[in-house]
Every structure is written in C-alpha cells, then in structure tokens.
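Structure record:
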Amino acid sequence: MADHYEALGVGRDATTDEIKKAYRRLARELHPDVNPGAEASERFKSITHAYDVLSDAKQRQKYDQGGQSGGFDGQNFGNFGDIFETFFGGGGGSSRGPRSRRERGQDALVRVDLDLDEVIFGTHRDLEVDTAIVCDTCKGSCCAPGTSPITCDICHGTGSIQRAVRSLLGNVMTSSPCGSCRGYGTIIATPCMTCSGQGRVRARRTVPVDIPAGVDTGLRLQMPGSGEAGPAAGPNGDLYLEMKVRHHDVFSRDGDDLLCSLEVPMTGAILGTNVKVKALDGDIDVEIRPGVQSSEVLTIKDRGITKLRGSGRGDLKIGIHVVTHVRGVLAAEGAGRPIGIVASGLDVVYPREHRDLWQATANCGLLLSEAPPGTRPEPFRFPLRNRIVAALSEVVVVVESREKGGSLITAAQAVDRGVPVMAVPGPMGKRASAGTNQLLCDGAAPVTSADDVLTALSFHHGRSAVYPTDLRARPRGEDIPVYRALQHEPRTIDGVALVAGLSLVEAAMSLARLEAAGWLAQADGWFECVGSPLR
C-alpha cells in the first residue's frame, strides 16, 4: 500500500492546513460524482483514509513512529483505541463522562368516576393528584440555598475510575463508576433540608382535565408530562386517567347507544299516545303508535352518546313495557266501584268519534280484553268475555254490531241477568249496524245522546255490590274457601290448594264448579274472581 504522505502528495513535515488543502484538491478531482472510473474510486478511498490518519494528531504520531510494521496498516483495523473501546467501553483513554442527576419521573395512574350524562358530551374536571413536584426550596438543585455541588476529588469530575488491567493484548484500561460520587462527578456536601437532596417533594396539585365525550369504563387517557417530577427537577412522567362510568337507575349503555324502558298503560298501548321521556340531555316527545306491543323497541336517532372516534352520536333505544292491572286484568277491588266497563280487543276503536269517550271510560272504570294483555285474542275466550261484561255492567250499550257480532252475545247475557240493554241506531242497510238495529227491533232502548245512558243508570243507581239479578249459584261448602283464596289475587291450582288447605283433586273439582257457575275465570293455568264479589 502507498505511503499516506505520498497518497496526498505532501511531505512528512507538512502542516495540518497543507494536508487539508491537498486532500480537498484531490477529492474534487477523484470524487465518484465527478470521475466515475474504477481507478479514480480506489484512489479516492486511499486519499480519504490517508487524510483520516494524518489529520488526527495522535494517529499521525503513531503512524510516524510505527509506519506499517506488524501488518496493522490502519485501513483494516484502525487504531488500538478503537478495539479497546469496542470491547471495554472506553478503552484507549476515552470516557463517557459523569451521569446526570436529572432523571425522568414515574408515570401516575388516577381513576376518574363519571356520571352517564357527563359521557354524552364530555366534561371538564380539576383533579387533585398526590404526586411528586419540584422542590420550591432548592428549585431542583438538590443543594441547600446558597450552596452548590462540588467536584469529586476522587474521579475529578469524570464520574468514573480508570484502572490498567493486564491481558493477552497487554495493559488494557478499564473504567468503572466512581464509588465516592456514584458516577455523578459531583458531591452534594450540603443537601437541601426540604427534599433531603432529591430535588422533589410529595405534594397535592391540581391537574385540569378535559375528558372527551364517548369514554367508557376501563378506557385510559394519557396526559404526557403530567405525571411525577423526576429527581433533580428531571422531566415529568405521564399521567394516565382510567375512566369509571357510574351505574344509572334509568339508562344503560350499549356502545354509543343509550337504552331505557318505558312503561305504557294498556289504554295508551291500544289507542296510541304521546309520552314525554326525560332523557339525559333534555325531554323527548315519544309517539306511541296504536297497537304497540311489549318488548318492542323505539329508536330515537342521534340522542345517544357522542362517538369517541369519528363524528355524530348514537341512538336512544326505548323498550316498551305495557303495564296491565296490578292484580290481574279483571281485578278492580279497592279502586272503587267502576262507573263504566269497556270491553275491547287489541283493535282500533270504531267509530273514531268514540275514541275519547272510550279512553275516558277505560281510565275511570275497568278495561277488559278477550285475551290477557300481551297475547293475541283467541276466539274461544269470547263467550267468557261476554259473560264478564254482562255480569259487571249496570247498563249494556251496544254502539255498533254486525248481525252476528260478539256484542249481541253480551247483550243476550245481560238480558239473562236482568241488565238493561240499549243500542245506538245505525243507518238502514249498513252491515255494521245490522246487529244494533235488530236489538232495537227486539225492544232495546235507543240511545241518541249521553243523557239517555245517564237516565238509564239513574233507574238502577241503588244496586248493591251483589246484584239482585245475579243468577249464579252461590258457592257452598268447600267452594267458599276456594273462592276466598282468589278474591285478592289470581292463583294457580297449586296456590289455591295451599291457601284453602285442600288436596289438588279437591281444589280442581271446586275450581271447576265455580268456573261453571261463572264465579271464576281461567287463563293459562291462572284462576281469578269475576263479577260482583261474594259477600
């Protein structure tokens, strides 16, 4: 290999500036971008390596003393200092310097309890956090006021101690942290009394937090630089906020949707109604369509929770629960004597002009249906419904009926019990009025206004709780305790047997007799009293 001085074209007594000028001149001529030839590329590498050796005073001195002896020409292995630094971390006299007392602080975790209404649009909180802050006395210097760290007299500020160790390669210099200053290079002779020389103290501080909308339980928010202060006023760690959404008595959450349940009275479910729902962000007018069923879900768009990622809001989903009578669909005891009885299935009230009267009567009296609420009407229940209506009524008014409508059965049951029957005249030739017109022909009193009904009721105002015209056979013997067991609430046959103190066979026979006499009604295995109570 050519001599480094010859490669650069300078003498051995050339100065550093002369070596630099020579290298720059040759580099402009031989650079691959200017001269792309292979020979020029090899020469460019040679002058670059020669300049790296001769421009460094230590490497030039070693080169002048040893030249290329021993085969270590410097191109392949550099100098021994590089080898020592690679294997021993700072050999050859180099040093990494003292380590800093300033370190990054620890991260902190705080749980934040939120109400569901705060999650919809987000909220602002001022959190009180118990954490480490920079010491106000020493301002993070760790020294008492008026003092400062002094240089370690053992390592002389380097933070490490170097020792010569014999090895196969000869004497090798090793470096280890100074035991006196623990690698810092300085010693705090007079530490701060407030922080004990740590540069930080424990204290409570207020952290303002803007919590975004849409967070959920378990979600963690990261606030960089809001954690604990590091030693010697080092940079703060991060603060993590773990969200916890409290349980709400009315609303629950499904992703970005809000869920709630709405109780609708039977009359509102049949006729339809408007209900005001108190949502978390204001009242909502909900329209209940006629014929709504329990377990149906109404969806109110964009009244849920604001989405955490993206835009827009979820939906409010309202589950409908149709409320029936507390003690059964036929129970009216304790609510006063009904002033009117409305018999209807889950159909639309007709004619429409009777809708308000129908609902007002249902609210004041007793709503009967040929099927238990929430189930579809079954034809075999119609005769039972007709007997119940006739037994409970003081006056039966048939507004409209076909020639063989169910209302005619009710009227026939009322006649058998001595209950007056009235009918509203309808147009001749109209099929929907054929039944009512036939009742008028058979002697039913006509109804042309509400005064006609009130007049009819005044004739029977003095009737007692047990109607004098009640043709049912009164319960006798063991049928009496069975009937008493059902006066307050519906029961199954097992419950009746238990309360009445009878066997299942005796209870079943008694229930059959009472049902045949019209004192009881049975639906899906449940029995309850009907008609006027037994006194």
About this structure: The chain has a mean pLDDT of 78. The chain has five domains: 4-78, 108-245, 252-323, 337-471, 472-535. The CA atoms of residues 257 and 352 lie 38 Å apart. The radius of gyration is 50 Å.
